Amino acid sequence: FPLLLQEVVSEESEEESNGVNLMEFSDEILLHILSYVPCTDLVLNVRRTCRKLATLCLDKSLTHTVLLQKDYKVNKDKVKQLMRDIGKEIYQLNMAGCYWLPSSTIDHVTRCKNLVKLNLSGCHITSLRLSKMLSTLQHLRSLAIDVNPGFDASQLSSECKATLSRVSELKQTLYTPSYGVVPCCTSLEKLLLYFEILDRSREGFMLSGQLMVGESNVPHYQNLRVFYARLAPGYVNQEVVRLYLAVLSDRTPENLHAFLISAPGSFAETGATKNLLDSMARNVCLDALQLPKAWINGSGLLQHLKFNNPFYFSFSRCTLSGGHLIQRVINGGKDLKSLTSLNLSGCVHCLAPESLFRKAEDDIDSSILESLVASCCNLRHLNLSAAHHHSSESIGNHLCQLLSRLKHLLSLALPVCSITDVAANAEKPPTASNLVPQTFGRKVRIGVQTYPRNLGDQANQKIESSVFWALMGSLRFLETLEIIGSSFSSAMPRNEPAIRNSLPPCARAQSVGDSEVAAISQLTYLQSLTLAQLPNILTGSGLVSVGLQCQHLRTLSLANLGMMGKVVYMSALVDMLKHCKCLRDLRLEQPYFCAGAQFFQALSHCSSLQRLCIVSRSGTLQSDAVMSFMANCLEVIMCHMFMGESLTVCKNLQQSIVRSFQAERPALNVVIFPLLHEDLTEVIRDVPMRHLDEITLFKSRVAEEPPNLWW
């Protein structure tokens, strides 16, 4: 875009017989256009093209907020020049995830004397550098940082602590047991904590959750309105978060309106946490709630908590029944128009009246979902994944038919078995793919039709009368869609060896395949699509429809589609990728995937691609094809491949990519490693958190956090 502007300006003096010169537009229109250009390009390139742009590029509307968090081409010199030119004009600076910048880059932030909001999550910064920087930022009110091993709060100067005392919003990612800067922030209103502490050191020693000497200062929570904690797996994270919660249990802030704790696995309730919850039930009125499953299961907590105008609820992995959901949360059909985000992922009984004698695969009670939809009519984000939500054969009461009433939905996550058209499925004879066992190993070759090559043929094969087709047609503004098998688990979990076996798909999901994927092509504004464990993918023809029709698609994640012993959709995927001009992130997880010349040639058509992740047990790759792809796709800065190749092949390819492209791509992050190697977890721990959390690890992301939790 900057080059285009320069070309336009260079031709400004020439007479134009067709069209209008861009420079003839009003300042308001030009400012709107320039708002889509990265700030570094505006200040360092575009403003040097002509006098008019020199003035416009320094307009306050463009320099007030500087976002560098995904500007992968920015380097230390560009940041230095940017701060020198417009540092005093910057009020909000986001450098989150700029892991490639050396820690000395942070020194230049001191030029931004008027900063109010600063995000340095994922940046390398020491205690001394943090102290020096914060000492000069007297207007700072919002801060995001990482706390790494070696952090020492005693090195913070009195001027730095004075700045921290005025900070009202703090986001802190912990890689070591510590309070970080929390005790210095005496005016906190919003506290976000991300616990990423590993249980073992690199040397193999067990770590303790006890805080370091000198870390006994008490946090100040008296003004707290929002408390959010997200824990990575591990007992140390649980020990440390309990220390943060201990102060809350003594005295609950009266203005607290959002209390959220996201903890995987088992996080047991203690006497202190029980006291905290009892205090909250007596003294506060909440707008957002998320608790570990053990704190909700079997307790009457929800019956006693008070809610004002709630905008976010997450009961992920709880055994909450639909009866309790309606009675205790929705108050038997209370108007909850304020609720915009609801996460019921893994709540296997949330659409059933009770859970005591119910099997997870039993049909849902449509009246519960109907009450939910009627009460929460303004939902924008809904997650029903990781559960068996089987609709009965009652006409008009299918889950898809009820969800079609939620006209404001922007993101939706559903289990595969929930989109099955029950009546149509009952009449349909079992297909060849149904008869093929969904396990690893060599498969008996079966006849597979070639997918249709033109839209006319595809249209003839679409089941336009299906309930899922109708649902997709009614949610025209949906931006994020996840269809994930209820028994799907990724082959690459967080802190454990790769999973060698996977559970078979739900029997009700056996008929879900190409026609359902084709129905997704109706979502014109779709930006992110996740498909996992769709058993009846025979050719992948629906993927071609999605590629042609969903031109705004930026993120695509495909996992375990069709039979497991062969990638039956490769030809369709190759055709699809040729149309994905806006695609930035691609994640593929499929056994026996061949990442060869055909695949990478097609992927080279994705000119906007930035991140690629392939996870494949027994998968193969062609090194020459990978190198050619990296040379052709200049925007790619992340290449993660966990395949079945030998360690030698993987290391040689990784070194070749780094050696060839690191200099011109400062943010380049390459990890190529055998999926089943015993050292996989050690390799994973070195991946930048931005990539690990956003693409490398598979998870459902719909309603994972409250909307606009952080800027």
From TrEMBL:
Coiled coil: none annotated. Gene3D superfamilies: 1.20.1280.50, Ribonuclease Inhibitor. Signal peptide: none annotated. GO terms for biological process: SCF-dependent proteasomal ubiquitin-dependent protein catabolic process. SUPFAM superfamilies: F-box domain, RNI-like. Residues 19-66 form the F-box domain. InterPro entries: F-box-like_dom_sf, F-box_dom, FBXL18_F-box, FBXL18_LRR, LRR_dom_sf. PROSITE patterns: FBOX. GO terms for cellular component: SCF ubiquitin ligase complex. PANTHER family: F-BOX AND LEUCINE-RICH REPEAT PROTEIN 18, F-BOX/TPR REPEAT PROTEIN POF3. This is FXL18 protein. The gene is Fbxl18.
